[in-house]
Every structure is written in C-alpha cells, then in structure tokens.
Give the backbone structure.
Amino acid sequence: MRLVVLIGLPALAGILTYVLPSARWRTVALLATAAAHLGIVGSLWYRPPAPALGGWIAADPLGLLVLTVVSVLFSVVATYTVGYLRIERPRGGRAFISCLLAFLAATSLVSVSHHLALLWVGMEATTLAVAPLVFHRHDRRSLEAVWKYLVLSSVGIALALFGVFLLATAQPVGVGRPLVLEDLVARARELDPAWLRAAFVFLLVGFGTKMGLAPLHTWKPDTYGEAPSLVGGLMAGALTSCAFLGVARVAQIAVAAGLFSFLQPLLFGFGGLSLVVAAAFIVGQNDAKRLLAYSSVEHMGLLVLGLALGGAGAYGTALHLVNNALAKGALFLAMGNIVLVTGTPVVRDEAHGMLRRSPVSGVLLLLGLLAVTGSPPFGMFVSEFTIIRAAVTEGHIWVASLMVALLAVIFIGIARVIVQLCFGAPQVDERVRESPWLVVGPCVLVGLVVSLGLYIPTPLHETLTSAAASLGGHGP
Amino acid sequence: MRSLEEILLFAVVATDFAVLGTSRLTAGIRATALQGIALGLLPIVLEPSRSAHVVGLAAGTIAVKAVALPWLLRRAIREAAVRREVEPRIGYMASMLLGAAALAGAFALARRLPLGERETALLVPIAFATVVIGLLVLVTRSKALTQVIGYLLLENGIYLFGLTQVDRVPFLVDVGVLLDVFAGVFIMGIVVFHINREFDSLSAANLSELRE
C-alpha cells in the first residue's frame, strides 16, 4: 500500500499543482509532497513493506537504496527550487513544478518495479518528465540539448524494450510469472541462455544510454550544460541511479543464470571506456557544468566496473550509488548558485573569487570537489577504495591500476576548474546575499557524504550487504 | 489465413525498402502509414481467437501508427517547409543493398533460433530486418524528419517481434505503443524547432535595424 502511495502521491500532486492558481501554493504543494514522500520512504526502513499488485511492485534492498537516495535528493532539490524560483523565472512556470513531481513519481516507479515491463514504463516516463525541464529557457541552445537528449534516449529506450521482449522469449511457458523479477531470478537456470544473452546485451545498451555510459554518453554534456542546475542534479543523482538499477536488474537475472563470465567482459568494456572518455574530456574543459557531466560519466563507469568485479565490488557499487547521488546533488546545486551569481558556468574573467563573492556556495563547491573526486574523509573515498580493493582481490590488477591512474587525472582536471572559480580576485568585489533556501540543502547533502565516509550505520550496512548479495557479491 | 499473414508481412518488407530508397519525405510518410495498417491487421490474422484485447490492439495500432503519426508528420513538413532529404551519408542504392543484406542476415539468424516454426519462418526475420533498417535510416539520414521515420521503422520492428509474445505476456505489446508517444514528441519538437528558428531570425533582423 505504501509503495503504491509513493508513486501515486507525486503523480496526483503533479496534476494538482498544474491547476493551482498561485505560485505560492504550488511551492507549498511541492514541499509537502517531497516531505510526505521522504517520510514514507523512512517508514519503509523500519517496517519493510509487503509486495503489492501481485508482486509487480516490491522494495528489495537494492530498490530500497535507490528509492531512498531519490527521495532524499528530491527533498533537497525541492527546498532549493523555492529559492531558485524567486530569482529565475523558467518559461512555462506552472509546468516546471508539475514536471518535477512527475519525475519523482516515475523514478519511484522504477525503484519499486519488480516487473521488467513496468520498470521499462517507469524509465520511459522519467525521460518524458525531464525533457520539458531541460527545455526551460525555450532558446536555441536548450532546444538543441533537449533534441539530442530525446533522440538518443528514445533510441536507447526502444532498444531496451526490444531487450524486454527478448527476455520474455527467454522465459519458457509455465516457468514462473512472466517477467516478474523474483521468478526470473529463482528459476534463472530454466531460462533459455541464448535469448537471455541477447536480452542482456539490448537492455545493457538501452539502459546504458540512459545512464550515460561511454560511448553512449554524448547527450550528457549538452543536456547537463543547458539544463537548470537543479535539474542537472536530479538527472546526475536520481535518474542515472534509476537507469543503473535497470542494468542491475538484468545483471541479477544473468548472474543467477550462471552467465557471469558472459556479462563480465561487456561490463568491463563499458566501464573502462567510460573512465577513459571521462578523463580525456575533463582535462582542458572550461565549462564547469560540462565538467560535471563528464564526472557523471566517470561515476557511472565505476558503478558498472564494481558490478563486473563481483565479490566485494558489488558492495562497493551499492555504496557508490548512494555516495554518487548525494555528492552530485550537492555539487550541481552549489554550481547552480555560482551560475545565479555570475550568469555562466564557464571559467572566464567574471567568474573568479567565488569564495569572496558568495562564501557559502564557494566552500560548498570546494567540499563538493573533494567529495566527488573521492578524497578522504568523504564517502566516495570508501566506496571507490572498496571497488579498487575488490579489483585486486579478484585478480584484476590491470583494472585496479587503470582506475587509480584515471581517477588521479580526473581529480586534477576537476580541481583546476573549481579552484579557478573559487579563488582569485573577483571582477565585481561585492558580497552576494545567499538565500538560505539555496544553501541549506546542499550543506545537508555534503554533511551526509562526510558522515558516510566516517561511519556506515548498521541498518544501511545490512541493506548494502544484501543488495550486494542479490548482485552475486558479498560484503567487504 | 496463412497467405494473408504472408501478404501483410510482405507489405512490411516492401514499405521498409520504400523508405530506404526514396528521397521524397511525403513518399516516406506514406510508406510508414501503409506499414502501420499492415501492423495493425497482423494481430487479428495471427490470433484466430479475436478476443477483445486483440481487436483493441489492432484498432489502437492503426489509429496511432497509420493515422495520428503520419498526420503529425505531414503537419511538420508543412510547418518546416522541407520536401526532400539532402544528400544522405550513404547513397540510396547502397542503403538498399545494405537493407537487402540485413534481410538475408535476419533470415539466416532466425533459422538458428529456438522458436516455433511459425514464428521463425517469416515474422521474426522480418521483425529483425525492420529493426536494422530503421536504425540504418536513423543513422545515415540527416534531416530530422527522416530520422523520425527511421525511428518509427525501428519501433515497428520491435512491435512485430513483440507479436510473438502477445498470447503469453498480454500487455507487453500494448506497452510498446507507448514508444509512439516519443515519436509524437519528436515531431512536435521539429515543429517547435522551426518556429523557433523563424522567430530567431526575425528578432535578429530587428536588432540590427535599431543600430545607427
């Protein structure tokens, strides 16, 4: 029941906010929905929910993790939106909040779907909900960005649907309920391996496009560069996590069917290439938002690499998913504040000395830099270290050394831009008044990433361990 | 019934190649509309039971694929004032040959697949070939409208393959029709794009007139 509410509530609220007459009421509805969603998700941790709709929706450990990061990130973004809408007026005003709420409904649906076709429907709905948000300025650049995004992700989503059909074909008549995850995993050995392999390839390419794995990432820099920062944060934190969940679901089935040796080289290929491409394009990048997009490509690559390593790598991937969503959210929102001050994410003369012009956002940007590049004591250090150690213990020394080298390059590339933004003499030396709506949320996110680096609470550790077990791995 | 099924599947292949071989956008749109009709009739022919679900699927498919989307595409052509594809990255003759190779490859592949005799004979290879031809059009043509037509072929191929599962996973194929929502959004995107471009040039002209 609670699971149905998690999807239905934001969907209804999205429709309601479209007809609400005043902007004030629309923001109240946004905040109330985000708070209610967060509350229900919190209650799932205390009392695990029963599967609903004939087992089509349920919250297993992996899905619960994704659902929780989506909900936390969305709540933060909702508070940020209040401050953002006081400064910027995106075109199509009322539709903006409705689309945000529709996005929450769609991502919740993806997180709790245990029916592969339903998961696909949720994934398509996320694309449709996000497109108007990217296209907020109605100018040429954002139009081009949304066009690229729609073309690539629709082809991706079409190939994923083909993968779902192939998966249905792989399941012989009478072997469990059609396309229900539990039955597919439990009786994975009875699936036809040839069709299952084909299904895995198509679903990996399809959902990999939505994740933005290289070489399917080309929409990402344009879209993140043009979208409002809060939308970029939602996409880099929540949407990519959902897309990864799609890949992880098929991997779960394939691993249970004993096809690990088939999927490992594929995942290594996509993951390794993502790291290489990210490093190559981060070096010399002057547009900070495009930089964050390539950083997102890097982290998606790490998630896939952890999945490919198995063992403790799966635990590292689950933890990295949480860290990535929180850190990316913080960094995108901090960057959004900088853009609101300077009007551009590009490092130029007017964009220096942010520590003096808007000190809180400047500090947040520096902390976000450290968090997203995996420096201690931030959570990403722990998860990246877990993945690298898994690479060593599982006997893939070359993967470990490639990761270490590329992560170092990426650190230098990101640090160069962010340090230029933060330090130096500002052209206009006046302090900007920073609205609490715009800084409290990212502070909370940074705080969460730091605390995850210092201490992982027992319930979270248990959930991460069982999520890793469902992916064919184990705890650290 | 068997021969009717063959005729409809043949119509799908013919329209695939019509799209591959033409430079006129209206001809491409007409071909996809015809393909939509063939796809709509196929579930009725394949499922002798004619349950309400199958009839509904057929009616919905024809309404969306043969009526609504072609209408939107024609409107987009009018708004954007484009008639022809500019020189494609791979010539028409070469792309026809590639399409033929895809068809042959699909037949060879389908024979080795563990499926019933009925599906592998025609339905599955033609579905595979339509997917590949759709991707080919999508990748090699440069006009946005032709790319949409390629996307429609791609999703039609997926729909065809889904028909093999229609009696087992009932709502799966219906879900596929959701992909058409995307195609609709695309076409509207093109309309907006061109309106926007006209608007852009107008305002730019105004700006230069205001100078000394």
In short: Chain B touches chain A at residues 113-115, 131, 135, 138, 144, 147, 151, 154-155, 158, 161-162, 164-165, 168-169, 171-172, 175-176, 178-179, 181-183, 185-186, 189, 192-193, 196-197, 200 (CB under 8 Å).
